[in-house]
What we know:
Layout: H1 17-23, H2 31-38, H3 42-50, E1 59-62, E2 66-69, H4 78-83, H5 87-92, E3 95-102, H6 105-114, E4 121-128, E5 146-155, H7 165-178, E6 185-188, E7 192-195, E8 198-209, E9 215-224, H8 229-232, H9 242-245, H10 251-272, H11 275-283, E10 291-296, E11 299-308, E12 314-318, E13 321-325, E14 331-334
Parallel strand pairs: 3-4
Antiparallel strand pairs: 1-2, 4-5, 5-9, 6-7, 7-8, 8-9, 10-11, 10-14, 11-12, 12-13
Amino acid sequence: MTKLQDVIVKTALEQLRPVLELLADGEIHSGESLGVALGVSRAAVWKQLQKLEQYGLTLESMKGRGYRLLGGLDLLSAEAIRSQLDDSAQGLLKELLVFDEVGSTNSLLLEQMEEGRGHAVAVLAERQSAGRGRRGRNWISPYGSSISLSVGWEFSGGVQGLEGLSLAVGVAVAGALQRFSVPGVRLKWPNDIWCQGRKLAGVLLELKGDLTDRCSVVIGIGLNSGLCAKTAGEIDQPWADLQEVSPGVTRNELAAAILSELLALLASYSQRGFEFYRDAWLALDQFSGQPVRLQSGSLSWTGTAAGVDESGALVLNMEDGQKSFHGGEISLRGAV
């Protein structure tokens, strides 16, 4: 069977990867030394460097000395990630791909799942030009400043057996963060990972196939790590960045930890279900016991958050009794 890496068309950004790898250390490099390392003229180097700013990368030119990328880059490496996976995850992961740019890692894998190429495949991208979050929102993911990860997995038994999966994925991401003692990690129903009261990461699940028998799921995870102030201005809610709350955690080691937790979950979810992860989710519930407001289109409900039930539905204590709400197009906010 053809591997996914052999059917993806490379983008123009990937042509800049060699010069980015040289500049990733954040040190000053002369045009001459860059040209020698790349095997091109200084004029060709300059043409490449001029293209970097359109991807949100800040290049500093120092007269008579050379160029440097302010702050450097923490570049993703498939080899580095694989080397840090848990032993069980090594055996579960069929293919791991890192791209410099894709439209959406989820969309890419969904297309390949339809052609039988996506099961047990993980895709990461340095940049998404059309990243998607829950409820159709854009997910901001500039070059080298986030974890943009999607994993494809096939399940039998239909959609009912996948109840609560998005919440369980949140538990897996929280577990990965806890490996590095990231402080203040909490979960917000149904798809968000918070840190110190702000959103750090989000989960997006998308399904294809026979919803009553065999179906394919793509699990997308977006996590902020190293966002610049300019990019952060585009985010429309309070946000957290991993490098601010836990500096020094590299994207490669974090991606390996997330994959290790996630692959173990996916391999056993059909047998365990959400019930296995419910207590862990409840222990991290951001809004437990707090007044909240739910919004779905023109409808809204207020009450006190009372955790989630065995299926992952949000339980709300309201004036007229206790009610359960399932995910979808429902937004949860703290009541003002």
